[in-house]
Design brief:
With about 250 residues, this protein is α/β, with parallel strands linked by helices. It has a single domain, classed as Phosphatidylinositol (PI) phosphodiesterase (TIM Barrel), CATH 3.20.20. The chain has helices spanning about 25-35, 75-80, 95-100, 120-130, 145-155, 165-170, 175-185, 195-205, 215-225, 235-245; strands at about 10-15, 40-45, 55, 105-110, 140, 160-165, 185-190, 210, 230-235. The protein has an eight-stranded parallel β-barrel with strand order 1-2-4-5-6-7-8-9, surrounded by five helices. A hairpin with a 5-residue loop joins strand 2 (about 40-45) and strand 3. The longest helix has 11 residues, at about 215-225. It starts with 10 loop residues before the first strand and ends with a helix. The mean pLDDT is about 95. The structure holds SN-glycerol-3-phosphate and calcium ion. This is GP-PDE domain-containing protein. Pfam families: GDPD. Keywords: Signal.
Length: about 250
């Protein structure tokens, strides 16, 4: 248990915005998350052919827009011409920072490009600096250890979370946890593979654990609250807040 006792209250991280309520990664979904008093807005980043950072989860635009193709092979102009749902466009990272400034907390995921290259770390930090977002309002996360290391090298003061895949979690030992702890505040793990023993192991190492779902939030929320994970990526922050109240 993270905090213990009845004052337990996990961070509510709006996963792709309130993505169960509004189209993911649109201003509608971020606005909804803010209305629902999420602590953080989660943003997945991809880079366009002409080097702009846009909020998009998949490597292609196919699932979430009316277009087709790899984000990396589309220009910003092409991406901005797409409908991301309810007439919304795909926001750029810069548009997001312009709109919300330091009014919200950001939980941003970096990725390697399709060839495994690090292409967005410097650019992202530059944008956060340009829009004067206080460092304590930003958490950066990645499945890529190289990306997390690169971010730490660019600025050792950043708040970082290492996302872990099932394989990493199964093999997780004290040495791995120590290496993570050297640069990150915690780890992000899929709720469906979390056992209480893993939660305890991680929290005993004074690392936070943030649980994410794969469209199966309703199935796992109670278990995550029972385990007292430190943060929850929620597709519906109002649902999570309600569950927290009745727990
Ligand atoms: O960033 C936490 C969670 O979002 C990781 O999974 O695939 O939804 O980005 P994914
Ligand atoms: Ca993500």
């Amino acid at each position: 248990a993270a905090n213990g006792g009845s004052d337990y209250s996990p961070l509510i991280i709006a996963h792709r915005g309130a993505s169960a309520v509004e189209p993911e990664h649109t201003f509608l979904s971020y606005d909804q998350a803010i209305d629902d008093e999420a602590d953080y807005i989660e943003i997945d980043l991809r880079r366009t052919a002409d080097g702009e950072l846009v909020a998009m989860h998949d490597e292609t635009v196919d699932r979430t827009t009316d277009g087709k193709g790899l984000v990396e092979e589309l220009t910003l102009k092409k991406v901005k011409a797409l409908d991301a749902g309810e007439g919304q466009t795909v926001p750029t990272m810069e548009e997001i920072l312009k709109r919300y400034g330091s009014e919200v907390h950001y939980y941003i995921e970096t990725r390697e490009d399709d060839k495994g290259k690090l292409v967005m770390e410097k650019q992202l930090l530059q944008l956060l600096k340009q829009y004067a977002i206080p460092q304590d309002q930003v958490i950066l996360q990645s499945f890529s250890k190289d990306s997390i290391n690169a971010l730490h090298e660019l600025d050792p003061e950043l708040t970082l979370v290492q996302l872990l895949k099932k394989k990493d979690v199964e093999q997780l030992d004290r040495e791995d946890l120590q290496a993570i702890k050297d640069i990150a505040i915690g780890v992000g793990i899929y709720a469906g593979i979390l056992e209480e023993s893993v939660v305890d192991l991680i929290q005993n190492h004074k690392l936070e654990i943030h649980a994410y779902y794969r469209g199966d939030e309703k199935e796992w929320t109670e278990k995550m609250l029972q385990y007292e994970v430190d943060g929850i990526f929620s597709d519906d922050p109002a649902f999570l807040a309600n569950k927290m109240e009745i727990k």
